[in-house]
Write a structure and sequence with these properties.
Blueprint: E1 3-8, E2 11-16, E3 22-26, E4 33-34, E5 45-49, E6 55-59, E7 67-68, E8 71-72, E9 76-78, E10 84-87, E11 90-95
Parallel strand pairs: 3-4
Antiparallel strand pairs: 1-2, 1-11, 3-5, 5-6, 6-9, 7-8, 7-10, 10-11
């Protein structure tokens, strides 16, 4: 079962991705995963299940971009176990199903 560990400021949150087709991450309260990072866009990135199994991360044309394992990326990227998504200083670690 895939999950996300979200670390922001002094808080840690565990999110189970079971049954989730997609999560929008951003500062908007309407996002499935709202964050407080000031450098995050209102709708910053999407984490979605992929047709091949697993999940992908996609930047939603955010102002400051999204980092995957410390590097910016265009478009979308498949996620692997242990990948770290950085959205304005909010760190989201992906743990894929075994």
């Amino acid at each position: 079962m895939a999950k996300l560990i979200v670390r922001e400021a002094d808080q840690t949150l565990l999110i189970d991705l079971e049954g989730e087709e997609r999560l929008i991450v951003g500062r908007s309260h309407g996002c499935e995963l709202p964050i407080q990072a000031q450098r995050a866009s209102r709708r910053h990135a999407e984490i979605a299940s992929s047709a091949e199994g697993g999940h992908v991360v996609r930047d939603l044309d955010s102002t400051n971009g999204t980092l995957l394992n410390g590097a910016p990326f265009p478009g979308s990227r498949p996620l692997r176990d242990g990948d770290v998504i950085d959205i304005g200083g909010c760190l989201i670690t992906y743990h894929g199903a075994p």
